[in-house]
Design goal:
heterodimer; A: 523 residues; alpha+beta; 12-stranded mixed sheet; 35% helix; B: 331 residues; mainly alpha; 72% helix; globular
Amino acid sequence: MTQAQKTRTDERSARLPRRSFLKLSAAGLAASVLGAAGFDLTPQQAAAVLARRQAGTLRVAWGGAPVALDPLNASADTEIAFLNAIYDYLLDTDARSELVPRLATAWDISDDGLTYTLTIADGVTFHDGSELTMDDIVWTFERLRSDGPTADLYADIERVEPGEGRTVVFTLSRPNPDFLYNLTDNHAVILKANAPNIGQEFNGTGPFKLQEYIPDRATLSANREYFAGAPGVETLEFFYFDSVESAVNALRGGQVDAVLRMDNATFLALGGEGAFATQQATTSGHDLVRLRADREPGNDERVRRAFRLATDRQAIFDRLQFGFGAIGRDSPIGPFFARYYSEETPLPGPDPEAARQLLAEAGYPDGLDMTLYVPNLSDRVALAQTLAAQWEAAGIRITIEPQEEAVYYADNGWLEVDLAITPWGHRPVAQQFLDLYLRSDAAWNESHFSDEEVDRLIALAGTTLDEDERTQAYHEIQRIMIERGPIIIPYFFAQFGVMGDYVSGVDVHPFAGRTRFHTATVS
Amino acid sequence: MTHSALSRVRPARFSRGAGSIGRFLIALLRSPQSAAGTVIVLFFLALALFGAQIAPYRANDQSNPPRHPPTAAPLERLRRVWDDPGRLFETETYRPGPYPFGTDTLGRDVFSRVILGTSSIFRVAGFGTLIAVVIGTFLGLFAGYQGGLVDEIITRVFDALLAMPALLLALVILGIIRNVETEPGSFQAALADNAVLLVIALVYVPIVARVVRSSTLEVKTRAFVQAAQIRGESWGYILFREIFPSVIPALVVEASLRFSYAIFLVASLGFLGVAARPPSPDWGLMVNENRGGYYQLAPWALEYPAAAIALLVIGVNLMSDGIRRAVQRSE
């Protein structure tokens, strides 16, 4: 065989399998295999990429759909995100819980802390072209304080009235150091006075206008006249999926550009994939593990201390939070509230032996048998299992009772049981948690804790205008909670955002729904 | 006919004694599929009985590193041997390592949990099926033999129960039972603790009863039953000594089939979170706990219990198929 012949034969033999392969694919046997092997992308993927490259559109996926879109009743992330895009708040907060101007560009507080004068930005117009007036703001707050879930929040407002020029004046009946934070409340978007069909028609001043709303999708277009500058994207689309899992899969498949809420494990997995830009923010939301303090066994300080001693927060933080968020120190005044957070008082433990001794001293030499009630959500059940294993070493034997959320909260059952885990969502100010579940007369005082000193400190912190005095009170509360409190806060949640690396200008807010999209750009 | 002539009319009994069981076993093990099924079931039965001795860790031992990958992953081993064939002869290649199935996100050994979960699935599915078979047999015999209004009532009630899918019925009943407050140590608490077992029994009683009833309807017209009636035998004697032996073949087949469905039902209920309570190493619960985000981080914590469910269900199915054929053959 000559060299030339050999080469030709080699070519033939090399070509043959290709030919037979083509025949096979012609027979339709391996059409999809060819597609996958021959091109980088399947047609679906190619179409998705094309869609993605449509510059100027930002597509955000949510694991749920809005139910109530009247600002009075809206509460879920999806609902607030929708309102936050179409309307404006007077004030916002940032990831560090600091106030950020929005419609209100400046504010002035009288010396007695009772009169707040807010200066409103110039040139703000509603989507229908009419100008924002002070009366619109007054009307909005009259609506908020007369009805619905915000009536309590704004109970200390005596009057709201237009001030000189473009100012609004709030007069309070008692000093409230958190009042400006109350104005950032999720419900408090500014509506047009006497707006018709609120919750169905959306005439806001916000950066985006509603273009189309169909059950699984809201399409919003940029408000070119937005007072703070035209948005960076032409179109903002919210996709409402059944679950976070589907939303994340859509992100992976390139059908959407961002997902703003997910569990720790999903975030960790997505981060590991490397194709996305990830963001995380520590929130003030937490899982509250609480023991009823008004009856046995929790009415004994030593028992409460034993639970704390038996808990290994670092292990929980590593295994359940994967290091996201922050370790808790058994009071809701967490690291998110940097100004008031303190690590002065050392946390006890983990020391199961000491816990066992304390239980024996308290009259439980054989340990305790208790049922731990927990809403049936995977992260909470995992926490319950970890706690049960840790506490077992101290002689606290736990039966875990996972209940569907509806059952857990039904008939106030969660307020009655001795030992339970309740998830508490993010709040912009620490005082809200104290007023919600720690004060002895709080509506949701699940631990039935009643401590005169704590009550006094909560009241002081809620009214004093002296920032030092307030900080001092918060530090004291943190010390007391570690010494004799009935609650364990093992960690504070993180809020996550995962976006395509071609998206920029989005800062994930601790409350996902308050994330702003008008500064977003898609390259 | 004299009395002695009547007593010679005997039912064709399902063969008894060591010899016939031997024949049955040979028939069962004759086909490779049913032999494989039987081996799988016996393997899991052994795990159920001796699991506590075999499992290297306690079910809820969280002291291991979390999300540790399986140390005995077969593909990974194959790849290593492929890369270096010399490894074929090293003992290291065959050592299972500390976590043959890996650990879950709480640091629990999946291998131990899968082994320890075997006993509960056998206990719940096994005893549930047994209770269903006992009650179903009695009611089926009774309804079939008695006929008339009694038969009508029993059959219609069962028809109504059968109209509902087993899983749905089980979910509804468990949903109600689980939210009833019980005194610890009381009879109600014992019932509640065994709720899944009882629910399995309840949803399968009508199915077993229907099979037994139809066999009974056919058997009761036979000569030996009439002979016993003429002899003046008691009602119980006729039901259990004359008719019952004839329905055993159908019953054995039905029982083995029910058992395989029961395993699947237990696993489904565990997955839906209404059967076992965490931290129990229930297979269905393990699949549920390690779904979603956790699946992406530690897929083995879901895959091994899921594989165990699949393997056991396949094993029981193959075995029950073999039982059916063996029974037909020994008839």
